[in-house]
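Issue 218. Parser rejects a valid record. Input:
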Amino acid sequence: MSAPTAEEAGRRVEEVLDRLAENGDAEACAAAEEVVRVLMEFYGSGIARVVDLLGRPAARPPAASSPADPLGPLLADELVASLLNLHGLHPEDAPTRIDRALSALPQPVENAGFDPETGVLRLRATASAGCGCSGTQDSVRQAAVDALACFAPEVTGVELESGAAREPALLQIGTRPALAGADGRSSAAR
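Output the parser choked on:
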């Protein structure tokens, strides 16, 4: 089955909305119209973003490197990536998309393992996560969940390994021992 044209899709939507209106359920009809509006806004925003990203001047790679990836800006964009994932069109595999999402987080984290069977991703903080309290750890975990929702929707759970973000040990500074003179007595005793 080929993809419908814009005209065919519009006609099908109108037919469905008309059938709902014929049933006399005004609430269901209004809800269906709202769904159509929300989806139109979502896809319209995605298409606008693609046009914007493709219209920007391409970053010039260094002469010795390979040419810039023309899909790079699209794949790095949350809205476009979510649309590609929604339709199974994202060209990157799950581990690459997970890494892309994690690299965008303000708090550095490390992928400690992803279980595709359960959808759980284990993370380990690679730098101090502040005071080490649960509120800070929860914010790191939530930031990861939010980023992964767009780039790797197959991740359905995120676990932040506890104790991974350790604070450095305190350096104890004391007084300097007295220096002993040539006669073996300390300078304070002379």
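Fixed in the parser; the record now loads. The CA atoms of residues 19 and 29 lie 9 Å apart.
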